[in-house]
Each structure stands twice: as structure tokens, then as C-alpha cells.
Amino acid sequence: MSRRIGVMGGTFDPIHNGHLVAASEVQHRFDLDEVVFVPTGQPWQKTGRTVTRAEDRYLMTVIATASNPVFSVSRVDIDRGGETYTVDTLRDLHREYPGDELFFITGADALEQILTWHNVDELFTYAHFIGVTRPGYRLNDHHLPTGKVSLVEVTAMAISSTACRERVEREEPIWYLIPDGVVRYIDKRGLYRKD
Ligand code: ATP
Ligand code: MG
């Protein structure tokens, strides 16, 4: 039997409750059998800053998702290494889940970038795309190909990884923005501190 697999890519530096709420909501609405979180490979840098090493981002994603029986984490992008392109992610997962239906879950900001920069026709051979609302970003559907992209309103969680990193740097609490185990891991490894 063909299964319905959600794919949630991200830098996850760190993963936060906005990611988890969006994935959970889409899992429910689209009746997905599983949602696979895929932390990106190690890019040289992302908008001018150094991204935390892949193994730390991978472990934080595992800690955040471990208690949910329908959430899992894939290493495909990390093991491929370098900059991550969505088409490579989907090609690899398509191979790993043969015969299953893939649903790529992405926030409004990321969806816009993916559809501008990628060979959209090839992307759509691998997956259906689900764009979720994200506070501060408007979902603009006027140039979306019909049938291959669904837009979904999810409960707005005004959280970003950037804001969480800045809070750690300023020694402000991140409890309840990020799962407890991940908060402890960040503290244990001294991630995002100024020095
Ligand atoms: P950064 O601030 O470092 O860019 P981020 O919070 O945007 O981090 P990413 O790892 O870049 O997190 O995002 C992974 C995916 O999750 C993207 O598709 C993004 O649009 C989506 N996303 C991020 N935050 C939210 C949120 N609060 N609500 C819904 N979707 C989100
Ligand atoms: Mg982002």
C-alpha cells in the first residue's frame, strides 16, 4: 500500500515549536502516515553567518521529534554534504520511499524561493507541495501552478530560529519556544552564545 509521506526540510538551527506545530497540523490535515524532518547539509554560510555544524542540528531535530510516533529524521542532506537543493532531497527520498507519495512541507518564505530558483517541473514529478502560512510572510498564489501546490493556514507561531539564536546571545530564555530537551542540548553544547 502506498503511504503518504510529509517532508519538512530546514536548517533547523535550532528547530523550534513553529516547525513542529506546522508539521503536526499538515500531518493531520493531509492524513500523512509519516513526516520526515530533513536537516540541510552544511552550507558555507547562510545569509552571512556560519551555520551550526550538521551533527548538532541533526541531534536537536532528533530530540525534538523523538516522542512523536509519526515524526522521523532523515540524514540524506547531511550525508550528501554541501549546499542543499530541494530537488536532490526529493530525488533521494523518492528512492528511499519507492511507491509512496511525497508531500513537501514548506513555509511561505521558503516556498517562494524554491519556486523561483528551481526547475519547478522536475520538482513536481517528485512531490506535491504544501505551503504553510508563516507570520510576517504573505502566501502569494498568483503564479503557483494549479494542482501541485496547496496552501494551508496553520496556527501562527511567531517564532524563528534567528530570533531564538538572538535570545540565547542576549541571555534571554527560550523555554516554551523550543522543546525542553533542545533547550537543554543548546545549553549543554554552549550553542549560540556570544563568546
Ligand atoms: P532562520 O531564522 O535561521 O531562517 P527559520 O525559523 O526560518 O530559521 P528554517 O530552518 O529556515 O527556520 O525553516 C525550515 C522550514 O520551516 C521553512 O520552510 C520555513 O518556512 C518553515 N518555518 C520556519 N518557522 C516557521 C513558523 N514559525 N511557522 C511556520 N513555518 C515555519
Ligand atoms: Mg528561514
From TrEMBL:
Segments forming domain Cytidyltransferase-like: 7-167
Stored InterPro entries: Cyt_trans-like, NadD/NMNAT, Rossmann-like_a/b/a_fold
Keywords: ATP-binding, NAD, Nucleotide-binding, Nucleotidyltransferase, Pyridine nucleotide biosynthesis, Transferase
Domain of life, source organism: Bacteria
Enzyme class: transferase
Pathway terms, separated by semicolons: Cofactor biosynthesis; NAD(+) biosynthesis; deamido-NAD(+) from nicotinate D-ribonucleotide: step 1/1
Pfam families assigned to the protein according to its UniProt record, in alphabetical order: CTP_transf_like
Swiss-Prot/TrEMBL catalytic activity: nicotinate beta-D-ribonucleotide + ATP + H(+) = deamido-NAD(+) + diphosphate
GO molecular function: nicotinate-nucleotide adenylyltransferase activity
EC number: 2.7.7.18
Function field: Catalyzes the reversible adenylation of nicotinate mononucleotide (NaMN) to nicotinic acid adenine dinucleotide (NaAD).
Family statement drawn from the similarity comment of this UniProt entry: Belongs to the NadD family.
Protein name: Probable nicotinate-nucleotide adenylyltransferase
Provenance organism: Amycolatopsis pigmentata
Gene: nadD
